[in-house]
Design goal:
Elements lengths: L8 H10 L3 E4 L4 E3 L8 E6 L2 E6 L5 E7 L4 E2 L12 E4 L3 E6 L1 H10 L1 H27 L2 H18 L3 E2 L2 E3 L4 H8 L3 H13 L3 E4 L2 E4 L2 H8 L8 H9 L1
Antiparallel strand pairs: 1-8, 2-7, 3-6, 3-8, 4-5, 4-7, 9-10, 10-12, 11-12
Helix pairs in contact: 2-3, 4-6, 4-7, 5-6
Length: 235
Amino acid sequence: MRELSVLGADDVAALEAATARTRTFVARQDLIREGDEPGPVFVILDGWACRYKILPSGARQIMAFMMPGDSCDLHVNLLPEMDHSIQAITTATVATISKETMQALMADHPAIARAMYTAQLIDESVMRAWIVSMGRRSSIERVAHLMCELYLRAYSIGLVNDGEVALPLSQLVLADALGMTSVHINRVLKELRIAGAMALRRGSLDIIDPIKLIQIAGFDENYLHRRLCTGAERR
């Protein structure tokens, strides 16, 4: 939040109060399911979660990964029911902010409102990038592009340590996000490792050669709008 807008002491205090009410979800537990009546706004404080849909065949498509600091559906209460589900990937600590509290927060704290709206726009930008990947990138480009994205997102919130980031995503989860089979994912990850671009080791992502990985992915970080974060820190 601080990276997206300049927050004063009163803004920070209001955010801390609004996110004081938390719940803990275990891995594979749904925060909310498709068809449910929308409830509070969820803010991920710790752990990872994902948005997903289940097809009539039982297949799952993951549409977004959420890390600490990410919020879910700012204006979802305008809709009569959820059109997708949200599930914890790891044990996750999640703040629940009621509709009334969120409305007051946005009305009384313009800096927080700006940050929330900006975050929602960036989420939409990421979704557009995922659509391009699914429609036009090859398998190896698709995997490399997602790894670049997750690494940069983790780096921006301080989750990268000595060039590595904990990536609690199984090959099955990656397959559901990238529209591939787990066998295909395994083969592509092996190709990227042999190429000397990156490696997944025991739930940790190691970017061995960033330039090579970026070239394979055709990655352009503009859609993450990280320059907005830099600008906010300078003001």
